[in-house]
Amino acid sequence: RLRLSFLRALFLLTYHKRVAITHNTTETRPESSVYTEMRGVAMLEDSVQDTTEYVRPSEGGDVISTILRREVMHDQTQGTCAEHYSVANANCTQDSDCAQGEIDFDGHGQRTGRCILYYNYTFKTCEIKSWCPIEEYAVVREPALEQAINFTVFIKNAIHFPKFKVLRGNIKPNKPKKLLRCHYHPETNPYCPVFSLGFIAAQAREKFSELCRTGGIIGVFINWKCDFDVDPSKCIPTYSFRRLDMRKDLPSSGYYYRFAKYYHKDGVEYRTLIKAYGIRLDVIVHGHAGRFSLIPTIINTVTAMTSVGICSIICDWIMLTFIDKNEVFSEKKFDDVSQKDGEYYTEL
């Protein structure tokens, strides 16, 4: 009985000690900074597309996007024109069908109260004050920038663990020129955070052609798991990629946004409205660091010994092994339940 108790206590003590060492001083909320830069040049028909054309925002940060396909509205100006027929209550047959001053928030402007022909068609819709012509009527859909599959993204990350006073980066400061011609590989190039868009899409298990059509948001996860009981230079991040927005078979899938370029002609303000579909990269940094510390280990070990009653077991073992009156102690400690000769027990 004593031996079994001792073995049980030894097992539990070993387990608690291992847990105590594993969960010593840790830090899970480090300070982090991210800088991103996209590189590459492509041809769209006869037009050269460089980073100024397709990268948003231009200054870099933990979020960066690239335009893969555009729908363009040229030469829009402030005026009056017919509302799109898909807008609720926009179709009409007479002026009384169009309430003057009414604004439909799914529409394109304020109604004037007139019912007019829908551009060159035979049916009519309500007239509105807006940027004309409206987007759905005169949009020009450009081909996808398929050469963007070879564009590269440089992601520089610095992480600081204040509790341990350790600052780490994902590039080597003494080899900056090598970054111009390398690509990331977890074994051969772990300090080269340069990724092609094709590689990112493949790692996220997405088709690049589908991303060109609808756009999408991909998370770039930088994972730091550091053991500062060894040399901090051994702490190297790993990278993973995952689609963050809804899938393509849902109505809210994809990623796009609108922006405009304004100009004046003959004293009149015009704009070119661009609806851009692309890939948005959200860089998300996770950090976890740990180091052995003596004081938490002592506290956890004493707690483990108390929880399994190891102190009383050690005292019993000393009394039964080394004290002269161990037989007397044994008689007081344990009950003899062995059956004597001639004694029988009857089941009731």
If you had to describe this structure to a student in words, what would you say it looks like?
23% of the residues lie in helices and 37% in strands. With 348 residues, it is α+β, with helices and mostly antiparallel strands. It has 3 domains: 1-23 and 294-319; 25-75 and 140-292, atp-gated p2x4 ion channel fold (Sandwich), CATH 2.60.490; 84-132, no CATH class. The strands form 3 sheets. Strands 1, 5, 6, 7, 8, 9, 10, 14, 15, 16 and 17 form an 11-stranded mixed beta sheet that branches. Strands 2, 11, 12 and 13 form a 4-stranded antiparallel beta sheet that branches. Strands 3-4 form a two-stranded antiparallel sheet. Helix 1 crosses helix 7 (310-322) and helix 7 packs across helix 8 (326-333). It starts with a helix and ends in a 15-residue tail after the last helix.
Question: What are the SSEs and their pairings?
Answer:
Elements: H1 2-22, E1 25-27, E2 31-39, E3 42-44, E4 47-49, H2 51-54, E5 55-56, E6 63-82, E7 91-92, E8 110-117, E9 124-132, H3 135-138, E10 140-141, E11 152-161, E12 166-169, E13 194-196, H4 197-203, H5 208-214, E14 216-227, E15 238-243, E16 256-265, E17 268-291, H6 294-308, H7 310-322, H8 326-333
Parallel strand pairs: 14-17
Antiparallel strand pairs: 1-17, 2-11, 3-4, 5-6, 6-9, 6-10, 6-17, 7-9, 8-9, 11-12, 11-13, 14-15, 16-17
Helix pairs in contact: 1-6, 1-7, 7-8
Family: Belongs to the P2X receptor family.
Membrane topology: Multi-pass membrane protein
GO molecular function: ATP binding; extracellularly ATP-gated monoatomic cation channel activity; purinergic nucleotide receptor activity
